[in-house]
């Protein structure tokens, strides 16, 4: 691979913003990709993937290069040099890239790879928490799986098109996909491509949604005509899936504490041809109280550590903090305690997270069921989805019935 100076400089700029200015990686990449309109798909792919790679392996590469935060520009180039050597890319003769002892980099890599927190490039506290929560064997496998680059998975919008038809349509735009067994609406891209510029996307024929996430809406067992509340709807990934499962019939109320996210959801409903969604921002406890005892189905896709989705958000490894974990677990229990009141007798709710930690998952459900508010509820089934077993994101979901 021949390295182009302006693309490498864009990567260094991106790393500076992510590591030193603490900006979000996805936003930074969007910004940096706007530098030059002439860059083609391969150039853009190089910038995005190289930046994500170095973010993912920040701790390992920093240890190898013996550099510390905040990173000076020469030190960011040192991280980049480590990336080149470990990828087997020959280092160009640029003044920014000093002659590097390749053998030393490879030697340090072999040595550090014996220790999980360096090999998997994770903070000490997170490695300790993972091992304590999942046990040594499962955590070792899981964190390795969570460090792999995520594939691009689409969910067919069955309100508009059937999967086979969508597959053909995408093939016409040179996007080859394969169905995934056990995930009825999913298509996996054979090769990473930008799907957002396709006519099929603009026409609302699909959404990009990880395979594990596609299991959540069906777990709630919604039926057309029901009243369904999606209580932590965000920008609506699962709301749209619920709407298609309800065949656009019935009432789907999408709630979130952020109006801005619900606005994005509205735009997506229009593209998807979804007509049965009503959004309401939770700006007081009244919003929930009004819905007490009224919903056939409630989805609690709770805010969480996001540990199950670090394949696609590798910078969250560096943003997560123990204090945040404590706080978010409090929010999760509040959500179970208060939002479960919206379920009517005989109705069902799903509590889900994109985390693999039992503290955020099965323990929260157990604490709820053991509490006074939980007395009228019964656990029907729960599922831990580990990335190391499924090959997709880590998730948890529990189906709970009000008796
Ligand atoms: C895991 S995300 C939801 C993702 C979304 N369901 C989807 O499929 O795209 C959790 C959401 O919960 C929202 N949230 C955080 N605290 C909340 C609360 N107390 N009540 C309702 N929503 C909350 C966040 O704004 C965030 O959008």
Q: Can you characterise this structure?
A:
- The chain is of the alpha/beta class and 403 residues long.
- It folds into 3 domains: 116 residues, no CATH class; 56 residues, 2-Layer Sandwich (Alpha-Beta Plaits), CATH 3.30.70.1170; 190 residues, Rossmann fold.
- The protein is 45% helix and 17% strand.
- The chain has 19 helices and 11 strands.
- It has a 7-stranded mixed sheet, with helices on both faces. Strands 2-3-1-4 form a 4-stranded antiparallel sheet, with helices on one face.
- A hairpin with a 2-residue loop joins β2 and β3.
- α4 packs across α6 and α8 packs across α9.
- The N and C termini lie far apart (62 Å).
- 41% of the residues are buried.
- The model has no long low-confidence stretch (mean pLDDT 97).
- The site of S-adenosylmethionine (SAM) has 18 residues, from α13, β6 and α17.
Label the overall shape. globular
CATH architecture of the largest domain: 3-Layer(aba) Sandwich
Full CATH superfamily name of the largest domain: Vaccinia Virus protein VP39
Bound molecules: S-adenosylmethionine
CATH topology heading of the largest domain: Rossmann fold
User: Kindly, what is the distance between the CA atoms of the first and last residues, rounded to a whole number of angstroms?
Assistant: 62 Å
The low-confidence runs, each spanning 5 or more residues with pLDDT under 50, are none
């Amino acid at each position: 691979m021949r390295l182009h100076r302006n693309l490498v400089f864009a990567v260094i700029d991106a790393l500076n913003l992510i590591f030193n200015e603490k900006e979000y990686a996805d936003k930074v990449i969007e910004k940096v990709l706007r530098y030059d309109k002439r860059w083609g798909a391969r150039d853009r792919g190089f910038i995005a993937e190289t930046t994500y790679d170095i973010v993912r392996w920040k701790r390992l590469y920093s240890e190898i290069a013996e550099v510390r935060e905040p990173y000076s520009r020469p030190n960011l180039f040192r991280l980049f040099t480590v990336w080149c050597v470990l990828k087997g890319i020959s280092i160009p003769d640029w003044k920014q890239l000093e002659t590097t002892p390749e053998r030393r980099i490879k030697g340090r890599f072999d040595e550090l790879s014996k220790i999980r927190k360096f090999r998997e490039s994770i903070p000490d506290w997170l490695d300790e928490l993972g091992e304590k929560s999942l046990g040594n064997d499962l955590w070792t496998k899981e964190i390795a799986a969570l460090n792999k680059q995520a594939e691009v998975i689409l969910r067919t919008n069955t309100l508009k098109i059937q999967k086979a038809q969508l597959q053909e349509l995408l093939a016409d735009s040179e996007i080859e996909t394969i169905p995934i067994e056990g995930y009825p609406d999913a298509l996996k891209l054979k090769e990473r491509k930008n799907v957002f510029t396709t006519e099929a996307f603009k026409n609302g024929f699909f959404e990009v949604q990880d395979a594990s996430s596609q299991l959540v809406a069906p777990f709630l067992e919604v039926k057309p005509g029901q009243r369904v509340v999606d209580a932590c709807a965000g920008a609506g990934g699962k709301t749209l899936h619920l709407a298609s499962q309800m065949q656009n019939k019935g009432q789907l109320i999408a709630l979130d504490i952020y109006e801005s996210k619900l606005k994005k959801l509205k735009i997506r409903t229009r593209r998807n041809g979804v007509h049965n969604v009503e959004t309401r921002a939770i700006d007081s406890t009244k919003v929930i109280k009004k819905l007490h005892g009224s919903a056939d189905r409630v989805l609690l896709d709770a805010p969480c550590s996001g540990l199950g989705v670090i394949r696609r958000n590798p910078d969250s490894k560096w943003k997560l903090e123990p204090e945040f974990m404590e706080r978010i677990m409090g929010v999760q229990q509040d959500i179970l305690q208060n939002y479960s009141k919206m379920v009517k007798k005989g109705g069902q709710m799903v509590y889900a997270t994109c985390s693999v930690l039992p503290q955020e998952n099965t323990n929260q459900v157990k604490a709820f069921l053991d509490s006074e508010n939980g007395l009228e509820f019964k656990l029907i089934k729960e599922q831990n989805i580990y990335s190391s077993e499924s090959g997709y994101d880590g998730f948890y979901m529990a189906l709970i019935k009000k008796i």
